[in-house]
Design a protein that fits this description.
Elements: H1 5-12, H2 16-42, H3 46-63, H4 66-80, H5 87-109
Helix pairs in contact: 2-3, 2-5, 3-4, 4-5
Length: 110
């Protein structure tokens, strides 16, 4: 599942309106940071890869998007190691996972 609904429910204390708002903000924010991460990977800017991936990792963990959290963590590690080797492959996976998360969220908050 793209979002851990049990975790999200605990976080929101079952408030679906709050969940919808939180998830909407998450989607908007993450799309912005994914675009910046795309640029960082394209230009092998490891410090930017680390920073953007760290942000995505934290935001994803906060809403229970575990797949996003794991992939962003892997990208953050590459940035910390000052390498962009394999970052393009991870970014493709991260983008695909984001699309799955986005579809799930749209269906969930509809």
């Amino acid at each position: 599942m793209a979002i851990d609904l049990e975790y999200l429910g605990q976080l929101s204390d079952g408030d679906r309106e709050f969940e919808a708002e939180l998830l909407s903000v998450y989607l908007e924010d993450t799309a912005t940071h994914l675009a910046a991460l795309q640029d960082a990977v394209a230009n092998s800017q490891t410090e930017h890869i680390e920073r953007e991936a760290h942000h995505i990792k934290g935001a994803s963990g906060n809403v229970g998007a575990l797949g996003m959290h794991i992939l962003a963590s892997e990208l953050e590690t590459l940035g910390k190691q000052k390498t962009a080797a394999g970052a393009d492959r991870l970014l493709l996976k991260l983008n695909a996972e984001f699309e799955a998360v986005r579809s799930f969220i749209y269906a969930y908050i509809a």
